[in-house]
Design goal:
Helix content: 10-25%
Order of helices and strands: H
Largest sheet: none
Number of helices: 1
Length: 45
């Protein structure tokens, strides 16, 4: 899944606390922190 952000600051806010942006009663439980989207380094690609 891909998320479009306004910029790097907004992306970092989302990655720091994704529960804040989820609905109060989500239909699906958020994935574990190690399964959530994160920025990959050039060495990882």
């Amino acid at each position: 899944r891909y998320y479009r952000m306004a910029g790097p600051k907004e992306l970092q806010q989302f990655l720091d606390d994704p529960e804040r942006f989820a609905p109060i009663e989500p239909r699906k439980i958020l994935p574990a922190p190690n399964r959530r989207p994160h920025r990959r380094t050039e060495a990882e690609t």
